Amino acid sequence: MSCLQKARPDIDHPESLIGRIFFFISYPINKRFGHRREVHSIFPWLAIFLLGIIWHPLLYIGIGAVSHIFIDCLTVSGVPMLLPISHKVFVIFSRKWRVKTGSIREFFLLFILIVLVGGASYSPLNAIRMLTGDYKMALRNYMEKGDLLCYLEGTIRMKTGEIKKGRWLIVGTEGSYGMAIFDGDRLFHIPPLIPLKVHIRCTDKRWPCHRIYGLKLAKNRVFFFDKKWHLAEEGSLIWGYMKDMED
């Protein structure tokens, strides 16, 4: 087997790069299923992809495996991607346009794909997260908006276990994961509230944010930050950073 073939990233081939690293996984898989058989079927990886919507590390594995299978369809031998339902070998393009496994052309194609994915800056994954209402994606989008006034829309599980659907004003972030939201009456914090499926909606307005030195009496209802966001009524003492709802 050539050095180029050994560098192929197939976990079901003991002589591949990843197969030699994880030989304790690769050998049993190869002995049980062979190369480019059930492990190259799209069904188990689609299941992992769907589970990744709940636990995100699996999402990366599912995306990588499914894209690997479709790339293998560009090779001369193709891949039976519908096993065990069908043993049909799937290929893309006519034979003269296919890529020989382990050839320089295959590695050139791999290089182009890496450049394209790198240039996309994980946007396919971001798109998936946005479609599924992922909170981490919503939080990241909000943090990119700077001081724009934004709302969190979707479904949230309250501390009582009640599931509420609505639209909340985002007051600000708390740490690397937390967020303070306001329903017009009360201020809530994530966590302990659990967002189930949420999206960000931003306006073109900007929050007025002021630094308070010492203590100050609130002239009206305001939010202020001291380790976390607080809601202060008119006449209450405030300190830290303030966002005025009426500016």
Class from secondary-structure proportions: alpha+beta
The amount of helix comes to 25-40%
The gyration radius over C-alpha positions equals 26 Å
Separation of termini?
Answer: 71 Å
Number of domains: 3
Spans of 5+ residues with little confidence (pLDDT < 50)?
A: 1-7
Biggest beta-sheet profile: 5 strands, antiparallel
Write the H/E string, N to C: HHHHHHHHEEEEEEEEE
- Count of alpha and pi helical runs: 8
Measured by DSSP, the beta-strand proportion falls in 25-35%
Strand order of the largest sheet: 4-3-2-1-5
Mean pLDDT: 76
Strand segment count: 9
Report the principal-axis shape. elongated
| Quaternary structure classification | single chain
Description:
The chain has 3 domains: 93 residues, no CATH class; 64 residues, no CATH class; 40 residues, no CATH class. Helix 4 runs antiparallel to helix 5. By secondary structure, the protein is an alpha+beta fold. The N terminus is likely disordered. It is elongated, with a radius of gyration of 26 Å. 19% of the residues are buried. 34% of the residues lie in helices and 29% in strands. A 5-stranded antiparallel β-sheet has the order 4-3-2-1-5, covered by helices on one side. Strands 6-9-7-8 form a 4-stranded antiparallel β-sheet, with no helix packed on it. The chain starts with a helix and ends with a strand.
